[in-house]
Write a structure and sequence with these properties.
Layout: H1 9-19, H2 28-35, E1 50-51, E2 57-61, E3 70-76, E4 82-89, H3 100-108, E5 112-113, E6 118-119, H4 124-130, E7 138-148, E8 154-171, H5 172-179, H6 187-191, H7 195-215, E9 225-231, E10 234-241, H8 245-268, E11 272-276, H9 283-292, H10 303-316, H11 321-332, E12 336-340, H12 367-380, H13 389-422, E13 429-438, E14 441-446, E15 452-457, E16 467-476, E17 481-487
Parallel strand pairs: 1-8, 2-8, 15-17
Antiparallel strand pairs: 3-4, 4-7, 5-6, 7-8, 9-10, 11-12, 13-14, 13-16, 14-15, 16-17
Length: 489
């Protein structure tokens, strides 16, 4: 293609979904089933649910997100305790196991966010409407409770059904800037008395949780994530999503909610799915990377030692810390899902320094979370588990693959969009960092715009984490190619 103005990125997105094994189009039977779902619920539809509609629930998400999976609420307790409630959308209420919708969702396994176009796991009428916790009406939810103590430790609470109403749909950037003293109060805070105080309390709980996890070896990682900004069908820009206080707040709340859910299912003694990150396969390379910074790590994988190293480097050089984080993440290996039977030795989550962990807070977006929700509800109803261990084992393997393929599809589309944006910069030299070096080739990430490409000329001896200069040779958006030449000196 000689003129990138004629590149049909949306068509490339559909082809990319197909390439990585996803079904980008909802079958007719799925649409028919979705259209037959009653759009409104009444308290009678959720017998036994607690009525928590009067609490000041709120959500924090991206400005354009409509598939809201969770909302949060806190209240102060005795002796400095903070009681946290996380309400998770009751997606299972509308998507029954083995329905047409469920089979489609299980096949794709996750929503895929290509930047150019989003491919929701569940049709918009569900994930962006009926089963989303939008502030339009009250909704059915499964609530996870836990208590945060002054030292950041937590006490697992109960899980139960509830009716909830979202008071405010807040945005990461606005809330984050306000919490960090960089921006004004969000408009909603002026409109809803007490909301600012509520978010301050949530922030305090999150800070405690984060500090406690840091002390116990959770890895301090800030991997750069790029976001495609579209103007109609044209690529306007590619920007880096900045980690801020609001994103940290939600991350900490979800980690604690997932730990609480895992403990709840473990007490019930039923098989479940764990989210794991195995002990790093390339620990020797992580040790070598730490050595480049003048630090020594033990010869065997040690999460606490790595955590201390990362915290120290973040304090030394905050601006470049995301680059180091990206290198460590690449060397650690990907997260995955595994079936777990209570009483067996868990694999654990190395990055979070957790032995037992799951994904259960995003049932609109991830199928593993919908499985966990069904398991929770079976315990609440004192019913037999809807999944046998062998079925969970097969699903865990499949969903691990879908998770990795989704990431590949998203990276491909980022390169396709970047290929359009960078066409005018062919011949320009960029600062970059090596993000991959193997027999398959050498890959680098440039910083502005924040995208990856392949070094097709020179650079045979480069190693992951090296800082280099590269010259842009060519781009092929339809193939996701961004090709560079290594510049010596």
């Amino acid at each position: 293609m000689k003129d990138n103005r004629n590149v049909d990125l949306e068509n490339i997105a559909f082809n990319t979904m197909d390439k990585y094994g996803f079904n980008p189009v909802y079958p007719k039977q799925v649409i028919q089933e979705v259209n037959s779902i009653k759009g409104e619920i009444t308290p009678a539809d959720v017998p036994g649910a607690k009525d928590l509609r009067k609490l000041m629930w709120s959500s924090i998400d991206n400005y354009d997100s409509m598939d809201l999976d969770q909302i949060e609420y806190c209240e102060e307790g005795d002796n400095g305790e903070i009681h946290v409630k996380v309400a998770i959308a009751d997606v299972d209420l509308f998507v029954s196991k083995n329905s047409e919708i469920d089979r489609y969702a299980a096949f794709n396994g996750t929503s895929v966010y290509t930047g150019v176009k989003t491919f929701p796991m569940l049709p918009d009428r569900l994930s962006g409407g009926i089963s989303s916790l939008l502030p339009d009406d009250f909704h059915a939810a499964v609530v996870v409770e836990y208590t945060v103590f002054p030292d950041g430790s937590i006490k697992y609470g109960e899980l139960y059904r509830a009716l909830v109403a979202n008071s405010a749909k807040l945005v990461y950037e606005e809330v984050g800037d306000w919490l960090e003293g960089k921006g004004p109060q969000p408009k909603k805070f002026h409109e809803i008395p007490g909301l600012a105080k509520q978010i301050r309390l949530q922030d305090e709980a999150a800070k405690r949780l984060k500090e406690f996890r840091r002390r116990n070896g959770s890895l301090e990682l800030e991997t750069p994530e790029a976001e495609v900004i579209m103007d109609g069908k044209s690529v306007k820009a590619i920007v880096e999503q900045r980690q801020n206080a609001a994103r940290c707040l939600i991350e900490e709340f979800m980690v604690a909610a997932n730990k609480t859910t895992t403990a709840f299912l473990d007490r019930a003694g039923i098989p479940m799915i764990h989210r794991v990150v195995r002990s790093p396969k390339y620990w020797d390379k992580i040790v070598a990377k730490a050595g480049e910074y003048g630090d020594r790590l033990p010869p065997d994988p040690d999460g606490k030692a790595l955590s201390k190293f990362l915290i120290k480097q973040k304090e030394r050089d905050t601006e470049r810390f995301p680059d180091l984080s990206l290198t460590i993440v690449k060397l650690m290996g990907a997260g995955e899902y595994v079936a777990y039977r209570p009483g067996k030795e868990p694999v654990g989550h190395f990055a979070l320094a957790e032995t037992d962990y799951t994904h259960g807070t995003a049932p609109n977006r991830r199928y593993a979370d919908l499985i966990i929700q069904r398991l929770v509800k079976s315990v609440l109803d004192e019913r037999k588990s809807p999944y046998r261990y062998r079925e969970l084992d097969e699903l865990a393997e499949w969903l691990s693959d879908r998770d990795q393929m989704a990431k590949k599809a998203e990276r491909f589309m980022l390169k396709a969009a970047a290929g359009v944006l960078l066409k005018k910069s062919i011949g320009k030299t960029f600062d970059a960092m090596v993000t991959g070096a193997s027999e398959k080739g050498t890959y680098v990430r440039i910083f502005s715009p924040p995208v990856e490409g392949k070094v097709v000329r020179g650079g045979e001896t480069l190693q992951v984490g090296d800082k280099v200069k590269v010259r842009l040779i060519s781009t092929k958006p339809e193939k996701g190619y961004i090709d560079f030449e290594y510049q010596r000196g």
